Amino acid sequence: MPHQRYLVPQTELAVRWNRCRELLRQQAPEAGGLLVFSRVNIYYLSGTLANGVFWLPLEGDPVLFCRRGVERAELESAVPTKLAFTSYGQLEGLAREAGSDLSGVMAAETGGLTWQLGDLLRRKLAGVELVPGDAVLGLARSYKSEWELEILRRCGALHHECLYTLLPPLLRPGMSERDVAHRAWEVFFSKGHMGQMRMGAFGEEIFLGHVSIGDSGDYSSAFNGPVGVRGEHPAIPSMGSAERIWGEGEPLVCDIGFSLEGYCTDKTQVYWSGPVASIPESVRSAHSFCMDVQAMLVESMVPGAIPSELYARCLEMAQKAGMSEGFMGRGHNQVAFVGHGIGLTIDGWPVIARGFDRPLETGMVLALEPKQSVPGIGMVGVENTFEVTPGGARCMTGDQYEILPVS
Description:
This protein has ten helices and 17 strands. Helix content is about 30%, strand content about 20%. It folds into two domains: about 5-140, 3-Layer(aba) Sandwich (Creatine Amidinohydrolase, Chain A, domain 1); about 145-405, Creatine Amidinohydrolase, CATH 3.90.230.10. The chain is elongated. α1 packs across α6 (about 135-140) and α9 packs antiparallel against α10.
């Protein structure tokens, strides 16, 4: 049997089901229920990382259909009805037998299926109309329950301890990015990092995160983030390069996540090879600007705040400070956001960006990552994970944001 404290309680699952139903009535009122396919969203709604389909009707009990591992689902999931299947063509009959009929119009998690499987599903469920249900899941997961927040708070505290206290004594100039990444893994695993993080966006992958020395911070990147990275290899463009060595008078950026009990926090710590006095004014002012942006967001991120308006204020601050050119990446690396929701995946809702006009709510969790590229030196800045509270955002990943000197 799995450890009981790791199991998602049935009461917690019921809250999530009701939240999705409420959002379904708002986002897709014609649908009689929600079909979910991606493993991370199935975990969110069932408590087990099942290979299959989750059916959540507007009325009645949900059903977890397992293509494989129904016995494991019985051990881990508090969903009352768990059924084995081998073909999408069986879903209608099995749901009917379970007393939770599929509806004529269903919202489907389109991001959880490939085009190939989506076409197959439509053929197997002939006569059923499928409408997009991804917004329902994104919005539901953006609100964290106290059960989820407790995990994230522990995750964030461990994250800060590792990057601020445990890792610095293991660092020294002359190490490669890869050496630094391996030291980070050592301290992370020593504190319970579970070794795997997830991305929600199609095609995005993550492994530890980005470890970038100097000009690596501006290295061309296909990852949707402001920090560049040389990475391990063209086939594995993440973590850090064995060939880039940390020299005197260079920044080292560790933009890396921590994973605990399925949930992630995100944090960036910048280190400097040399004493504090050796940090150039251009680096100091750029990093200070990023801390100012973070401080503005922390004060402003209260229930009712509009993410798109917060983003506009960040751009205004960058323009007034003369930082627009390198803010949130240089050249083609520049990204059009300053923060993102986080939880079961690194990239979640809401996003501090244009077009995100739904107000923030208490219990939302976001990673704020104002970064600034300094010409000829590389990337500096901060990233921390915050929960939205009535008094402003509360940091989960520590309260120390300065560049740490290492010599």
